[in-house]
Amino acid sequence: MKSLVIIFGILLQFTAAVKNPIISGWNPDAAILRVGSNYFVATSSFVYFPGIPIYKSKDLANWELYSHALNTPEHVQLYGTPTGAGAWAPSLSFINGRYYLASMTRWTYDPFARVWPRVFFSSSEDLKTWTEPTWCEPWGIDPELFHDANTGKTYLNLMAPNNNEQRLWGIYQCEVSLTTGNCVGEYISLWNGTIPQNSSTRAEGPKMFFKDKYYYLLIAEGGTDELHRATIARSKSPKGPWTPAPNNPLIYNGAFGFKNLTVQSTGHATFVESAEGDWYASFLARRNINGSSPLGREAFLTTVKWENGWPIVNDGKPILLSENVGNTPEAKPRATSFTDTFRGKALDPSWYQLRIPYTNNYRLGNTGKDKKDLGIAGHQKPGGVTLYPNVFTLSDRDTPAALFRKQKSLNMTFSATLLPTDGSLGYRQSVGISAYLSEFQHQDVGIRGCVNQTGMCFYSNLIRNGTTTTKQIPLNSTTIPSGVTLQIRAEPLKYTLGYQIAGQKEVWMDEIESKWLAFGPAGTFVFEGANWALFGSGNGNPWPFNAPEVGFLEVKETYFEENIPDYDRWD
Ligand SMILES: *[C@@H]1O[C@H](CO)[C@@H](O)[C@H](O)[C@H]1NC(C)=O
Ligand SMILES: *[C@@H]1O[C@H](CO)[C@@H](O)[C@H](O)[C@H]1NC(C)=O
Ligand SMILES: *[C@@H]1O[C@H](CO)[C@@H](O)[C@H](O)[C@H]1NC(C)=O
Ligand SMILES: *[C@@H]1O[C@H](CO)[C@@H](O)[C@H](O)[C@H]1NC(C)=O
Ligand SMILES: *[C@@H]1O[C@H](CO)[C@@H](O)[C@H](O)[C@H]1NC(C)=O
Ligand SMILES: *[C@@H]1O[C@H](CO)[C@@H](O)[C@H](O)[C@H]1NC(C)=O
Ligand SMILES: *[C@@H]1O[C@H](CO)[C@@H](O)[C@H](O)[C@H]1NC(C)=O
Ligand SMILES: *[C@@H]1O[C@H](CO)[C@@H](O)[C@H](O)[C@H]1NC(C)=O
What we know:
mainly beta; 6-stranded antiparallel β-sheet
């Protein structure tokens, strides 16, 4: 047995073990940090609360959701914030024994409002309890705190405009006070990247580090979509001047044709050195499915090697899903399911709300009027989650009574069993589940007071480019009975929506191509990916005081194999 272990150990040294994406489901701008034997990755959260998730790993291959940095309304203001704005592009630093998160909040895209993104940092001893934000002087995006161990100085690096008229974006810097957030050294332009500068080419996401005799400035360029890439420069000083690498761009799958490789929009990288002295890069990428990416931008990892003081990422090869990378333990097989019966003291941290939940939108448990039917006899605490529906719907730029989870697989089902009601839903009252991308794009199935007829109906609402297609089927019952499950089957190319009544065959009401859950309508910015939602709504009216309580007894996700090809060919 012992010899077997040793042989296995030797084999492991040659086993490339990181599977991409390392964190599936939308998690853009993955910024990695190692402290001791722990790795942490922080990602963007936009209009979701709590904000800025932090994932933890011991081995780079297996990641778990560890905490959120913006976990009270004082940490992040998102009232009325449109999809795609909100909290972005975090970076993590470890300075004098404290963790620092630098990030930004953007409240709107409206150019007439002249509201610009603001940068801040906060700090923590344990990554769980965070100080309130310290707001920095410059405006811009993608801030980073770089602590120069050679001098003890801390710099704020960020993407900022040259001025507020031309708005040519580049990487800017000042030495910063960790107490006030103010600049304590001159504010300078560091580098404008490698692409000829105009108002849409963007040098962003600065990540600075010192290795051997050079300071390195790693950035993202080319905008958010197909031209996205990672480039680097080095200097003898953290203030420059900067010499670009001879092998830029370091990461750029678009170089192989935008329609060829599945993995696209590669960039926004952060480097990390393992305790063993191996280097890796975290970065973002999309998994394109016939040209669109319903899961949005996910967190990826690859190797970094050094030659003549310059990094070579992934051996200079394109990023492929089929290739595992690195020299780490094997990734554990992925879970095949997730079940939530809502019996914990609090919601599982993988659930989110939209914007700032300024009203209480749910409670754990249910009235348990029908305990026998709910199948919870013998349990200490009734399970389930009861929603407090309000006037808002998933189409509003507000906080509907809705709970969200990231869609983590391109091949899975999401199902939710409704709590039985003691009465009927009336005109405008609805309860359901959704495949949700934004206030413009969500595909719903649920139960509502029927439209144009009396009684309650199952209904589906599909949104294609602003046009809604609705179907309804009478429920033939004056209450929602026990054992009604709503379900959505997600496949790479489509979502299928339906329901199942206990003991009966499942009914699929409608289906929609997954491309309708990717990218926003013209003129909007949607930087997130697909979520699953549970919702209840008064659809513009308050939920009547005497209307039945609605909610869900149990949520279940089942994950199937994801055989996503390296080349984006689906015909
Ligand atoms: C970057 O571009 C801005 C605007 O054109 C310019 O003012 C600045 O000097 C440039 N910075 C560097 C380091 O070249
Ligand atoms: C900026 O430059 C990029 C590439 O160099 C080009 O594709 C784009 O059209 C330019 N945008 C503007 C606003 O000039
Ligand atoms: C990728 O696509 C481009 C055009 O879209 C084509 O010219 C090129 O040959 C393709 N490359 C590969 C490796 O398939
Ligand atoms: C309800 O009736 C209106 C008017 O006839 C019609 O336009 C609409 O499509 C109907 N809605 C449903 C869900 O049947
Ligand atoms: C969606 O609608 C917009 C505006 O009407 C149009 O320009 C665009 O081509 C449409 N997109 C698709 C995929 O149909
Ligand atoms: C309710 O009855 C109608 C008419 O028989 C039928 O078409 C429909 O499928 C029934 N609804 C359910 C949920 O079984
Ligand atoms: C999705 O899962 C189903 C059921 O296991 C399987 O038949 C199918 O090949 C999978 N699709 C992909 C793209 O992996
Ligand atoms: C892929 O996308 C193209 C262009 O939108 C479309 O014509 C084709 O039907 C799609 N293929 C599949 C398998 O969905």
